[in-house]
Amino acid sequence: MRVKILVTGAAGFIGFFVSKSLLEKGHSVVGLDNINDYYDVGLKYARLEQLGIARSEAEIFGNEMQSSNEPNFSFVRMALEDREGLPHLFEKHAFDTVCNLAAQAGVRYSLENPEAYVDSNLVGFLNILECCRNYGINHLVYASSSSVYGLNEKIPFETTDAVDHPVSLYAATKKSNELLAHAYSHLYGFKSTGLRFFTVYGPWGRPDMAMFLFTDAIRNNRPIKVFNHGKLERDFTYIDDITEAVVRILETSLDRKISPKERYKVYNIGNSKSVKLMEFIMSIEETLGKEAQKEMMPMQPGDVEKTWANVDDLIKDYDYSPNTPIKLGVQRFVDWYLKFYKG
Fold this sequence. Notes:
Blueprint: E1 4-8, H1 13-24, E2 28-33, H2 41-50, H3 55-58, E3 64-66, E4 73-77, H4 85-93, E5 97-100, H5 109-112, H6 114-134, E6 139-145, H7 169-188, E7 191-197, E8 200-201, H8 210-219, E9 224-226, E10 233-234, E11 237-238, H9 239-252, E12 264-269, E13 275-276, H10 277-288, E14 294-296, H11 312-318, H12 326-340
Parallel strand pairs: 1-2, 1-5, 2-4, 5-6, 6-7, 7-12, 8-11, 9-14
Antiparallel strand pairs: 3-4, 10-13
Helix pairs in contact: 1-9, 6-7, 8-10, 8-12, 10-12
């Protein structure tokens, strides 16, 4: 069943891979991204080039561009906050479903630039919900985050856990997204599915994430900052596993009727395993064949000591559980990094 899907954040890490996978499955995709400068825009344009969108075209705001090598893909540079442009896009395309992966990312950056999180993650998300309401969208799949668990001490994290104690503005905006989606699904009858991603890594990954930061520093003989003196654990989740989960959720809902009880759901998307930070660093060192210079640092504001996803609901509803081993994922990232940054 071929459908037309809007993927926001299409120049971003997860959005790029989800768009690519949907196209490979024969769907029609319209990608949207504002290409902000939170991190190197060159990487964002390079992702789009993989989808057949030239940088010279992607730099233009507002105009929709057709891919040069993907007949079912087009791209428009637009911000979610564009309250006039977004409805026009929905009206033009009559999307079957929406995958909202656009957001201002980063826990620590939210301490420096809180306004960016309000604009994109709150105002922008409300605009998406309004468009879903007004243009007959059957299903909205959107990115939430494991950061919503905040100060929860019960491990592993379950979607039934209370998430009332966020420790960063970023986490608070993601929890707000879940609340807004619940209200709109209840009031207007369309399905919304929130995905709490756990520490996503892999090729084409974000430069502000640990995988990239550590690899780049070790390769270039710079020290790495090891927060909380290395006493951190993360549920590292490989990008292919994230993509498979997102696409499976998008496709499964297309050919079945939605009952009122199914209208609002939240899932953890994680590897169901917590890996010690020092073990993660060791995997990078072994792959690069180089030892890291480590600067032991205190805990950072907005950070948590441990994350670990319970994915029983994902297994039950979609017969899927992410399972890429950390060593394999690290190897694939390093291979890509060395090729992409060969200079």
